[in-house]
Write a structure and sequence with these properties.
With 320 residues, this protein is α/β, with parallel strands linked by helices. It folds into two domains: 116 residues, NAD(P)-binding Rossmann-like Domain (Rossmann fold), CATH 3.40.50; 178 residues, 3-Layer(aba) Sandwich (Rossmann fold), CATH 3.40.50. It contains ten helices and twelve strands. The protein has a seven-stranded parallel beta sheet with strand order 8-7-6-9-10-11-12. α9 links the parallel β10 and β11. The chain is elongated and about 70 Å long. The mean pLDDT is 96.
Length: 320
């Protein structure tokens, strides 16, 4: 049995689930960023299950990948941008991509419906006790959705969007026919696709090639009145250019779960915009998420001990 370190701000449930699967497991817990270097040096784990529970700033990346690094790091979330680079010949990194894909897809669809049904104006009319007999609904059916990044979340979103009767176009690093997607293109084709979009969902991971992927030029290519959802990572979408487009009305609405600085500073102008939904990087968080992420870890732990291929091995050059 390998030595296992559980790294989260509250490891009680993780420890209980690990004991339930492996009563004789050799493991320790670490519940802070500051304590991780010392724990690694003393315990020398073979495996670390780690959750980024206090943001990226201060995350003990150097210790995790340093002299006392484990052989396998299981990231409890999907994104690994807080890890930086690593040598895959020395350390295997896996992630929990796909665990929250359906929840994130629901979040995006919910945001789209918020704006397509004009919920903000319905709420204002309710507050004013104003009965607008001429009001009409706007369907998602027949609208075109461009999904930037057809990973687990992008593919889950495509399925739900097709159920609403939307035309779905998507990009991926290596284009190939994808279920529930009408047209698939390479990442380099994004600029030519954006003028067709009524809705855009940014679902790509943050890696070198996606840093500032969605900037002023891409936003200018969008037709007026588009609704954009961003569940990627802060740094993929240019927030300043997005703010200007929201102010001018070029972008009708934005559904934002990720930001360049998190928590979003209180003086950020996005807080003041009525046509923006702001959520605290929680589109992937739901009651069962922790258990489902850890279940994937337990499955991989079984594979690890049988010397079988692990699921969700991350390529540090690709970021997924």
């Amino acid at each position: 049995m390998p030595r296992i370190l559980l790294h989260n701000d509250d490891c009680r449930s993780l420890a209980e689930w690990l004991r339930g699967a492996y009563p004789d497991a050799d493991f320790e817990t670490c519940e802070s960023y500051d304590a991780l270097p010392g724990t690694l040096a003393r315990y020398r784990p073979d495996v670390v299950y780690s959750v980024r529970f206090a943001g990226t700033k201060g995350f003990p990346r150097e210790a995790l990948f340093g002299e006392h690094a484990p052989r396998w790091i299981a990231n409890g979330g999907a994104g690994t941008d807080h890890f930086g680079g690593w040598d895959p010949a020395r350390i295997t990194v896996t992630n929990a991509a796909g665990v929250a894909a359906d929840m994130m897809a629901e979040y995006i669809i919910g945001g789209f419906l918020h704006f397509s049904l004009d919920i903000p104006r319905l709420q204002r009319d309710k507050a004013a006790k104003f009965w607008d007999a001429a009001r009409m609904m706007v369907p998602l059916r027949g609208k075109t959705l461009v999904i930037v990044g057809l990973g687990h979340t992008g593919r889950a979103l495509a399925l739900k969007a097709k159920a609403f009767g939307m035309t779905v176009i998507g990009t991926r690093a290596h284009p190939k026919a994808t279920a529930h997607v009408d047209e698939v293109y390479g990442a380099d084709d994004l600029l030519t696709l954006l003028p067709r979009a009524d809705f855009v969902a940014v679902c790509t991971p943050l890696i070198g090639s996606t840093q500032n992927l969605f900037g002023a030029r891409q936003i200018a290519a969008l037709k007026k009145g588009v609704v954009l959802a961003d569940v990627s990572r802060g740094g993929v979408v240019d927030q300043l250019a997005l703010g200007r487009a929201l102010e001018s009305g070029h972008i009708a609405g934005a559904v934002l779960d990720v930001f360049e600085v998190e928590p979003l500073p209180q003086d950020n102008l996005l807080w003041q915009k009525d046509n923006v939904i702001i959520s605290p990087h929680c589109s992937s968080v739901y009651a069962e998420w922790g258990r489902e992420s850890f279940d994937l870890f337990l499955e991989n732990l079984d594979r690890w001990m049988r010397d079988a291929p692990l699921r969700n091995v991350v390529d540090p050059n690709l970021g997924y």
